[in-house]
Structure formats: C-alpha cells, structure tokens
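Hey L., structure's done. Input below.
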Amino acid sequence: MNRTKTLIFIGVLASSLANAQETPPATENKGQLHGNVQALFQNYNPDDAIGAQVPDAKAAMNTFGNFTYTYGGLTAGLRFESYQNAILGFPNRFKGSGIGSRYVRYSADNFDITVGNFYEQFGNGLSFRTYWEPNLGIDNAMDGIRIIFKPFKGVALKTIYGQQRFDFDSRIINGAGIVRGIDGEVSMNEAFASLAEKPLKVTVGGSFTSKYQAGQTFERDSTVFTLPNNVGATTGRLGLVYKNFQFTGEYVAKINDPNADNGYIFKKGESIFMNAAFSKKGFGITASAKYVDNMAFRSDRDALLFDVPINFLPAITRQHTYNLAATLYPYATVLNGEVGVSGELFYNFKKESLLGGKYGTYVSLNVAAVNSLDTTHVGGTEELINGYEVNSYGFGDTKYVRDVNLEIRKKINKSWNVNFVHYYFEFNTLVTPVTQDFKGIVYAHIDVVDIQYKIKPKHSVRMELQSLLTEQDKGNWATGLVEYTFSPHWSFAIMDQYNYGNEDPEKRVHYLYGNIGYSKGASRLMVGYGKRRAGIFCIGGVCRAVPASNGIEINLTSSF
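Output:
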C-alpha cells in the first residue's frame, strides 16, 4: 500500500473514531478502542570471548503498537511498527517507521468480510496459513480480501485473494506473487438434524490454494525449462470425535512448483498429517504421523527461509521450553522431505496412592522419530526434471532426529513443587544446521530439575538446574537459574550457562545474565543485562538464529 492509501485509511479510521464520540453512552453499540504496545531495546558491547556481534549503531530497537476499534459489526485496526535498527537476529532489511498492518472488517449474521491485512488458516495449515510472530520477525500477512460465508448451520466457506507481506521499509512491501484460495468445512452433526444426537461427531473439509507469479525460463545442462505461472495445492481433511477418542487427518497435493528450496525441479509435492488421541480423567495417549515431500510453497519462487511462505508444516517433535533442550538442538520441519512419527503417554497417579502421595504425581513420556524419505536416485533428464523418485511412504535411510523425553511433576506439600525432565536426543546437524562446530549426529542427554518454593503469600522462589552431556559438538553444558517473585509487581532472576565441556578452554565461558521485572495492571517492564550465547530460538516449530550478544535489554509491554 502506498502512502496516499495509508493516509486515506487513517483518515477513515479517525473519522470513525470521531463519529463514535458522538454516540450517546447508553447506546448498546458504543464503539471501543483496544490495543497493545511492545518496545524491545538492546545495546551491544564487544565481547571476543563469546563472539558477540556489535552493529555500527551499537544499539537497536523494535517497536510495535496494535490498535483495534470496534463498533457493532465493524472492526478497523492498524499496527504501527518501528525498527531503529532491527534487533540482531531479525531480518536486517526491516527498517524505518510506519504502518505495518491495516484492515477493515465487517461481520453480520452469516457473513464476514475483511479488506486489507489479515491472517487465516485452512485446516492444519498444510496448504495455507498466514500468521504474525513478532518474537521471530515473521509476518506473512495477506494483503487483499477475505470473505467468510456460513450459508447453513454447520457449513463454513472461506475465500482469500491478495499478496503476502514480504518486507518493511517504513511501509509494507508485498511479495511478487498473488495468492488465491477457497476453503470449505462441514460439521455433519450440525448440518444434518438426523446426526445431531449421534455419539460420533464428524467434520469434513477441503481447500484449494494457488499462487500466480509470472513465469520465467532458465537453462540447465543445455536444456531450457519454462517455469509455471500458476501453482495449486488441493487438500482434504477429516475430523472424528467419539466419546474419549479423537482423530484428525489431512492430505495435501501440490502440482509441480520449481523453486529455490527444491533446486527448481518440477516434481509434484504432497504431505500427510494425522493425529489420534484418547483421554479420560488422569490418563491420555496421543499418536501422530507426518509425511512431507517437496512441500515448500511460497508466493515468490526465489524466496528462502522465512520469506512469503504460503503454508505451514508443523513439527512433529515436542516443542520444548527448558533452555538447553529448546535452544541447542531444536527441530523444525524439513520442507523438501521427511517422514516422522511421535507418541505421548501421560498418567496422573491419584492422590493418596502409593506413587501419588498426598497430592498426586503427573508422569508423561514423549517419543518422536524423523527420517529422510525413502527415495531412489535417478539420473539423466529425469533428475533434471524430478530430482528423485519416492519408493514408499516409509522411513528412508538417513536419521534426522530422535527425541525421547520423560517428565515427572510432583507437589511435595503446600510450599514445594518439583518438576523433573530427562531428554535423550539424536540430532542430525547436517539436516538442521543449528551449529557450525560439528557436522554429524549429536547424541545428547539433558536433565532438568525445576524446584518452586512458596516462602509465604506473594513471595516465591524458583530454581532450575540443567545439565547437557554429549561427546559431540561443543561438549557438555550446565545451566542454573534462580528467580524470585514478589507478587503482583516484582520479579528478579539470574541465570548462568556454562559450556564446561568445550574442547577449547577459551570457549568455556560463563554466560551470566540477570533481569528485573515490574508489572502493574496490563503493563510490564523488564530490564536485563549480561551475555547471551549464540543459538536457535523457536516458537511452534519455526526457528531463527540468534547471534551472541553482550549488553542491556529493555522490554516494555502494555495493553488496554
């Protein structure tokens, strides 16, 4: 959107706000304004021991503010963004200040329409998902129009049309391609009265998503190839619920889509995602399976990494939260091909039982395994066109990851709570390059003890002790954390990470970091100082690299 359109949009929003002030207070549809603001500042100091990066400005700040105004069925919103300059680890081309998102939405009865920026997902997102994750610097918002129509009870239709956000330079910069899509979902038990009281609940859905980007030609091994203008992906999905049992499954097929991710081959893509779960009070079991073959899908065929993804392929491994497990060897989906399975079992030992004790005991076991595709190498012209041949939907020869973790949570008494987690990893760093110090499979054991002690009302202390043992990569690590909370306003924390097993004595560094937090109402200020090691930061199976740093961090968040 150019600056003229932005000014027009702001003018319309301001006019709506002004008109809302004239509405009598007693009116049921009185307009409301809500929003939230976040500012993250960081300064950078040189630190040769950890290889800290220092930008020319020696400081950076990311700021955004979301503002949403509602009046009856009308919603209008915008997001102001400012990168002065972008925090290291975010796309360094994000710069300047301006409007990063704006939209107007109207909904009434069975009809909903949005123009401007919006986020949407079809099913599990295998063919289409747009989302914003400010902590990762990811925003692939659509810029166009979305219509949601519910013609009958239990039936929902969606259609989207527009471009995706690609960049920010004091304004939104959209990607080269155009994305179109339609999605439909039917809740059979709602749509058909004869099924309303049946114990089996069935939901079926499907979608078609396509992108348009002007085709090009290129030459490879004296052969000229023409890239397609249009690429489409078709999905079908099924959801079942029967008493304590649930099942969801989705399949997507994509036509040939030569792009930078797959080396510009013309092979078709497909993906399958299935999840089954059974649960009752105190017990649950889940099983998941995923197959991905050549499913990088972007509105710009030449883009890579986080830029303009149309779809989202969730990781099948558990998303860990403790530091060493979450940041040293986090796993994300390999878009060009993987097969994975996972399962989780949890059980709550009842209170007053032998293993439950006075307060009960929670135990969970999670196992995940991911390998390459089962493929055969092809040569000649076939290799230029399709790259490889898939033999089956089974595991290939190359191990990507093994992730086994056991968690035990126990309340000792009214003051003490203990959480213990053991992780075992087999992690292929050639497939997911989370480190530059080792190329191969890392075998690692991680143990975490998390202890919480309530001193008295409003006063509590939490302590984490973490240990990582491995003979590969950088060797052994230890992490210690102590956090004191004085509710509802104050918190204090100090953390130390120590790579004591590094073969290079000069790299056996203490990464000491401390922070102070103050909260009041819906606002929170956090000030921290210390060393941050280089690593990987992940949210929901999507990861970005974070460089080593030494300095002050200030994080302010507020909502209204």
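Residues 1-27 have pLDDT under 50 and may be disordered. DSSP finds four helices and 31 strands in the chain.

-- N.
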